[in-house]
Amino acid sequence: MTDWQGKKVLIAGGASGIGAATAEAYRRAGAVTAVFDIAYAADTIAEDRIELAVDLADAAAVEAAFERLWAHWDALDVLVNNAGVELVASLEETSEAAWDRVMNVNLKSMFLCCKAALPRLKASGGNIVNTASQLAFVGAASFTAYTASKAAVVNFTRSLALETAAAGVRVNCVCPGAIDTPLLRRQFTGRLGPQGSLDDLVGMHPLGRLGRPEEIAACILFLSGGAASFVTGSAMLADGGYTIH
Ligand SMILES: NC(=O)c1ccc[n+]([C@@H]2O[C@H](COP(=O)([O-])OP(=O)(O)OC[C@H]3O[C@@H](n4cnc5c(N)ncnc54)[C@H](O)[C@@H]3O)[C@@H](O)[C@H]2O)c1
């Protein structure tokens, strides 16, 4: 069991959905959390949490956010890279700007945050968990940018795990199936998603339901905790069986 009491956990992309459930789970376990997210209207600095409004796709904004964080925290135990945007569009409908946005939020943000956090993680023997997707492993029509970004997250995770292993920093990723969050619900607003209806999407999961944000938070806490001390470079599927066949 990990003693999370007083541990410092940064969640990049944690104002809603999986990230919010993850921040809540860490705090319930006794950790203090910092969240960087574009959705915040204002910053919050409190005893058990720090919330900073940051566009994680913007290198200068990320650098400034870490400077503000280090003014309050002298250490970091876990970095969770969870920010993500989805794009439901055929290749022909996808603009260069939309492609770049998906890559910059889903992938470049991880590069920027890992680079800024690594010195502190090395000092504390901390670790990193990235959020990929079950769509890192299978194709999906109208998801070229999203699936490409998530497949890249898996190999980014593996390569960084090799780079940091000698320093004792583990790097893993979690690969959720369809989880009932605002991001998923947006896919089915206004028009049917490319998979058809929400019921059709549910039917693609052998467990016969959508996942809950708390179920992915539990995987993230496991991967970042002491029970996973020999786990690095792994891509943990938590997809209700979506990718079995
Ligand atoms: N919901 C699913 O079915 C599902 C499945 C697989 C993977 N994922 C991944 O899980 C992660 C969380 O998604 P979610 O479903 O909880 O969605 P969500 O929309 O509820 O949460 C995503 C968070 O990322 C933040 N964010 C987006 N762009 C940002 C930016 N530029 N800078 C800072 N923050 C930004 C949003 O404000 C939000 O708080 C994403 O990486 C997503 O790709 C989700």
What distance separates the N and C termini? 34 Å
Query: What value does the average pLDDT take?
Result: 96
Helical proportion, percent range = 40-55%
Q: Could you tell me the radius of gyration in angstroms?
A: 17 Å
* Structural class determined from secondary elements: alpha/beta
**Overall tally of structural domains:** 1
Biggest beta-sheet profile: 8 strands, mixed
Low-pLDDT stretches: none
CATH architecture descriptor name: 3-Layer(aba) Sandwich
Strand order of the largest sheet: 3-4-2-1-5-6-7-8
Broad shape: globular
The distinct bound ligands, ions and cofactors come out as: nicotinamide-adenine-dinucleotide
- Contiguous helical run count: 7
CATH C-level class: Alpha Beta
CATH superfamily: NAD(P)-binding Rossmann-like Domain
Domain Ketoreductase: 7-185
Organism: Cohnella nanjingensis
Family: Belongs to the short-chain dehydrogenases/reductases (SDR) family.
InterPro entries: KR_dom, NAD(P)-bd_dom_sf, Sc_DH/Rdtase_CS, SDR_fam
Report on the architecture of this protein.
The protein is of the alpha/beta class and 245 residues long. The protein has one domain (8-237): 3-Layer(aba) Sandwich (Rossmann fold). Helix content is 40%, strand content 16%. The chain is built from 7 helices and 8 strands. It has helices at residues 17-28, 59-70, 96-124, 144-164, 182-187, 198-203, 213-224, and strands at residues 8-12, 32-37, 44-45, 49-53, 78-81, 127-131, 170-176, 235-238. Strands 3-4-2-1-5-6-7-8 form an 8-stranded mixed beta sheet, sandwiched between helices. Helix 1 (17-28) packs across helix 7, helix 2 (59-70) runs parallel beside helix 3 and helix 3 runs parallel beside helix 4 (144-164). The model has no long low-confidence stretch (mean pLDDT 96). It binds nicotinamide-adenine-dinucleotide. Nicotinamide-adenine-dinucleotide is lined by residues 13, 15-19, 37-39, 54-57, 82-85, 105, 131, 133, 176, 178-179, 181-184.
